[in-house]
C-alpha cells in the first residue's frame, strides 16, 4: 500500500455511526402505543427568543404506561409548550392543569400503526441516503489521490474498505427499521 495516502476510515465510520444515531433518535420519537419521554425530544418550543427542546423548559415524566406529564418551570411557557405539542404532529391532545401538562397516549389503531411504519421507513431511507453520501465522499477522496499518485491496487483496496463500511451501516439501518416496524405493529 502507498505510504502517501491513507483514507481516514475511522472518521467515515464515526460519521456513518452519527447517521445511525440520528435514526435512533427519530425512531424514539415515533409513538408505539406506550408512553415514553423520548417521544417529545424532536419537539421544539419558541422560548426566550429561540427554539428550545421541551426537556429544557420542564421536567418530563412517565407516571403511567399511557401518560406523559411535563411540569413546566416557567408559568408563562405553559401555553407555548402546549401549542408546540399540538403542532408537532404526534397526534396527542395535551391537557393543562396549572403548570403541569398531561399527555394521554391513545391506543393506536391499525391504520395509524401502518402510517407510523411508513414514517419509520422514510426515516430509515434518510439515514441510508446520508450513509451513501458519506460513501461518495470517501470515494471522491480516493479518486483525488488516484489522480495524483495512488496506484490502481491501492485504490481498489480503499474502495473495498469504504464499500464494506457502507454495507455494514446500511445493514444496521435495515435491522433498526425491521425492529422498529415490529415494535409499532405489535398490539
What would you say this structure looks like, in words?
There is one protein chain. The chain is of the alpha+beta class. The chain has two domains: 9-27 and 109-185, Topoisomerase I, Chain A, domain 4; 34-104, Gyrase A, domain 2. It has helices at 9-29, 78-87, 110-148, 152-185; strands at 44-47, 50-53, 58-64, 67-72, 95-97, 100-104. A four-stranded antiparallel beta sheet has the order 3-4-6-5, with helices on one face. Strands 1-2 form a two-stranded antiparallel ribbon. Strand 5 and strand 6 (100-104) form a beta hairpin. Helix 3 (110-148) packs antiparallel against helix 4.
Concise structural overview:
With 187 residues, the chain is α+β, with helices and mostly antiparallel strands.
Pick out its properties:
Topoisomerase I, Chain A, domain 4, two-stranded antiparallel sheet, 56% helix, single chain, four-stranded antiparallel β-sheet, 187 residues, 2 domains, Gyrase A, domain 2, alpha+beta
Amino acid at each position: 500500500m502507498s505510504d502517501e495516502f491513507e483514507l481516514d476510515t475511522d472518521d467515515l465510520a464515526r460519521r456513518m455511526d452519527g447517521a445511525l444515531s440520528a435514526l435512533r433518535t427519530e425512531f424514539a420519537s415515533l409513538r408505539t402505543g406506550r408512553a415514553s419521554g423520548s417521544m417529545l425530544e424532536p419537539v421544539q418550543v419558541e422560548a426566550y427568543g429561540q427554539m428550545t427542546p421541551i426537556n429544557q423548559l420542564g421536567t418530563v415524566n412517565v407516571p403511567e404506561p399511557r401518560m406523559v406529564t411535563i411540569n413546566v418551570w416557567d408559568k408563562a411557557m405553559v401555553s407555548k409548550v402546549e401549542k408546540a405539542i399540538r403542532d408537532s404532529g404526534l397526534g396527542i391532545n395535551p391537557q393543562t392543569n396549572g403548570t403541569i401538562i398531561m399527555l394521554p397516549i391513545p391506543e393506536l389503531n391499525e391504520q395509524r400503526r401502518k402510517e407510523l411504519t411508513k414514517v419509520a421507513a422514510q426515516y430509515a431511507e434518510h439515514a441510508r441516503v446520508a450513509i451513501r453520501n458519506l460513501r461518495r465522499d470517501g470515494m471522491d477522496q480516493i479518486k483525488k489521490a488516484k489522480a495524483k499518485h495512488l496506484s490502481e491496487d491501492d485504490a481498489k483496496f480503499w474502495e473495498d474498505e469504504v464499500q464494506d463500511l457502507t454495507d455494514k451501516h446500511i445493514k444496521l439501518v435495515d435491522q433498526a427499521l425491521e425492529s422498529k416496524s415490529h415494535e409499532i405493529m405489535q398490539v
